[in-house]
Amino acid sequence: MMRITDHPILGPLEKKEVTIQFNGVNYAGLENESIAATLLANGIRTLRYSEKEQEPRGIYCGIGHCYECRVTVNGKRSVRACITPVEDQMIVESQGIRHEV
Ligand code: FES
């Protein structure tokens, strides 16, 4: 997992771990962080594929404006991964045709 676990100013990282599933694979996240942050910490940059050309898409603005990060969460489509906190046992799926596992 790619994280700063002991920051010189903020101190040690002390958050409860949660597990989410992305495209059928379990990943560890930390409570109150976004879906996008959890996936990025696990090395995942492609969140979906574009409708027209099936090109990979990921985090762009990171603040909920562009909708490039939209994913399906627990069956609900077009949820913005960058502003949606992870919850334990959350099921997240890419939108588009291709799926990376
Ligand atoms: S990255 Fe722009 S809305 Fe999520």
Q: Could you characterize what this model shows?
A:
- The protein is mostly beta strands.
- The chain has a single domain, classed as 2Fe-2S iron-sulphur cluster binding domain, sarcosine oxidase, alpha subunit, N-terminal domain (Ubiquitin-like (UB roll), Roll), CATH 3.10.20.440.
- Helix content is about 5%, strand content about 35%.
- The protein contains 1 helix and 9 strands.
- A 5-stranded mixed sheet has the order 4-3-9-7-8, covered by helices on one side. A two-stranded antiparallel sheet has the order 1-2.
- A hairpin with a 2-residue loop joins β7 and β8.
- The longest helix has 7 residues.
- The radius of gyration is 14 Å and the shape is globular.
- About 25% of the residues are buried.
Keywords for this entry:
single chain, 101 residues, mainly beta, Ubiquitin-like (UB roll), 1 helix, 9 strands, binds FE2/S2 (inorganic) cluster, oxidoreductase, iron-sulfur cluster binding, oxidoreductase activity
Shape: globular
Indicate the CATH architecture: Roll
Mean pLDDT equals 93
CATH topology: Ubiquitin-like (UB roll)
Going across the major beta sheet, what is the strand order? 4-3-9-7-8
Q: Give the number of DSSP strands.
A: 9
Number of helices: 1
- Level of helix content? under 10%
Q: Indicate the radius of gyration in whole angstroms.
A: 14 Å
Named once each, the bound ligands are:
FE2/S2 (inorganic) cluster
Biggest beta sheet summary: 5 strands, mixed
Q: How many structurally independent domains?
A: 1
